[in-house]
């Protein structure tokens, strides 16, 4: 089955396409959820919803599967500078100082982001942000 766009919103959570009601109905009938988060100016990313909540007419999803990576050698949360020179320039690479990346996303445009150092059980950074997102379902 193909993924279909159910809802899209801007960073303020204002609807651009589809409807939250249709997204919620699909979720309540067992649909899988995937979210595209527009992290501009860095490339956006498609994320699988590992856990999904519906509260007060909004959808919240959690993804904990990411490990720190970047398309550039230097990145705000670490460095990928030890990559072999033969590696394709601009390619996605793991950071030398990697972290586990946890994120909760919402149809309000909100994102709660937490980074924990690999193997240290130590919080590295936490922030909240607002992003445009596109919500997809697979029924």
Oligomeric state of the chains?
single chain
Tell me about the largest β-sheet: 5 strands, antiparallel
Count of domain modules: 1
Q: Order of strands side by side in the largest beta sheet?
A: 2-1-14-3-4
Q: Roughly what is the average pLDDT, rounded to an integer?
A: 92
Strand content: over 45%
Q: Compute the number of helices.
A: 1
Approximate shape = elongated
Reading the helices and strands in chain order gives EEHEEEEEEEEEEEE
Stretches where pLDDT is under 50 for at least 5 consecutive residues are none
What is the C-alpha radius of gyration, as a whole number of Å?
A: 16 Å
Which structural class do you get from the secondary structure elements? mainly beta
Q: Which percent bin holds the helix content?
A: under 10%
The number of strands is 14
Through-space gap between termini: 7 Å
Task: Please write out the topology.
Layout: E1 4-9, E2 15-18, H1 20-28, E3 32-37, E4 45-48, E5 51-55, E6 58-67, E7 69-70, E8 74-75, E9 78-79, E10 93-94, E11 99-106, E12 110-117, E13 123-130, E14 133-138
Antiparallel strand pairs: 1-2, 1-14, 3-4, 3-14, 5-6, 6-11, 7-10, 8-9, 11-12, 12-13
Walk me through what this model shows.
With 139 residues, this protein is mostly beta strands. It has one domain. 6% of the residues lie in helices and 53% in strands. It contains one helix and 14 strands. The strands form four sheets. The chain has a five-stranded antiparallel beta sheet with strand order 2-1-14-3-4, with helices on one face. The protein has a five-stranded antiparallel beta sheet with strand order 5-6-11-12-13, with helices on one face. The radius of gyration is 16 Å and the shape is elongated. The model has no long low-confidence stretch (mean pLDDT 92).
């Amino acid at each position: 089955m193909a993924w279909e766009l159910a809802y899209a919103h801007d960073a303020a959570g204002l609807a651009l396409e589809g409807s939250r009601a249709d997204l919620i109905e699909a979720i309540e009938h067992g649909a899988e959820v995937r979210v595209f988060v527009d992290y501009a100016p860095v490339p956006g990313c498609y994320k699988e919803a590992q856990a999904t909540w519906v509260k007060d007419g909004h959808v919240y999803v959690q993804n904990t599967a990411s490990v720190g990576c970047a398309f550039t050698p230097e990145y705000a949360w670490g460095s990928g500078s030890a990559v072999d020179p033969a590696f394709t320039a601009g390619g996605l690479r793991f950071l030398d100082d990697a972290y586990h990346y946890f994120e909760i996303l919402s149809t309000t445009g909100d994102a709660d982001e937490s980074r924990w150092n690999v193997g240290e059980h130590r919080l590295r950074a936490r922030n909240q942000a607002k992003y445009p997102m596109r919500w997809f379902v697979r029924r």
